[in-house]
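Quick note —
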Amino acid sequence: MSKYLLIIISLWLNIAFGQTGASALSPVFHANTTHTGFYTGKNYTSFGGLRWKFKAKGKIFSSPAISRGVAYFGSEDHDVYAIDVKTGKQLWIFITGGAVNSSPAVFNAMVYFGSFDGYCYALNSKTGALIWKFKTGGEKKVGAKGLWTMKPHDQYMVDLYDFFLSSPVLDDNNHNLYFGSGDGNLYALDAGSGKLKWVFKTKGLIHTSPALYNGKLYFGSWDTYMYAVDAGTGKLVWKFKTGDQPVVHLMEGIQASAVCANGLVYFGARDGYFYALNAATGKLAWKYSANGSWILATAAIKDDIVCTGTSDTFLFLAFDAKTGKQKFKFKANGYIYSSPAIAGNTAFFGDFTGKLFAINLISGKQTGQFTTKGRDSYASKLLNKDTLDYNSLSKGKNNELYSSSVIIMNELYTLGPIVSSPVIDKGVVYFGSADGDLYAVSLK
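Predicted structure written out below.
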């Protein structure tokens, strides 16, 4: 078995913002269109108690959007939910034809999101009624025959760690809605009508969410390129190639969404590097090697600190945003796919064992943790010394077979992995879990 089968990782990043459009005050995922992940307000350092949790009918990889007292999120059960944040009670539900692993964007009483049925939807945020839907060329997950050299070699195998869909971003200057698709296109639609304005074609699936910064859109594709495109016209400004892997069907590419600040574009890739590029030219400013570990978590930035997570090395990393000098590293208990949310000097993120961490950005020390119900129930059975150990989980199984990987992944799902990224609003952190629950946890 290839070592890359043991190095199993993914993320996604999925973006949403609220009624205030690009304002950093929007109490939703990543707070603004440049995806900085920074929330203004109180410096929360740890967790209080569970306020409520809401059970969906499927895994939750979508990150919630919080707007005007309502939490919006999607699930693999094909549904989008609207939940009252005070009570945890369902307000409405909308059913699509596929898994909703896209994170909603909320703007001007409309909710936007994508589904694996190949449509981008716009709903009335108060009622859940359909306003319009736009059909792309089709959605799918990454995969290949004999993926990672697994058997049977002639079987098409879906990449089990391609969790996400591109999440829409809205430019309130021109009322354009931008999102990527598994058909390889980045789309610009009129947000009010859903009419196509322009389309930009790449050579790979686009499951990253575009970052809007200084009139340009920055996004990665499974074709291994990071692109900069003019937001008004859809014309290419520049593209930057990340690394290729020599192993056949390794599925290299870019899953982490871009983050923009300080004139730089930050992102990780499956080639095992974290990059900082000049936003205007696409030239490399600096890069960090994760020693072969995929970097799939969308980064977050506060002031001069940029932080992200790694896959098989389980590391939460903080760098000097301008120079790339490492400030600290913290080891979690499993793969980090959840993108950080920063409040004050604390970063909040989850890992694949179902643990949500609070990490001080100055000291690099853990200041708190919260665990999912699945982790509480199954950690003693599945984890080795409280840590994900793939070798231990695969013991006694034929790791040359794709079916073995599917079995192991289904076992890991019982832990309630946190792939959804946390959202902070008014002293509460909201996040989804693969156990099917949306959690609302008090901060302190």
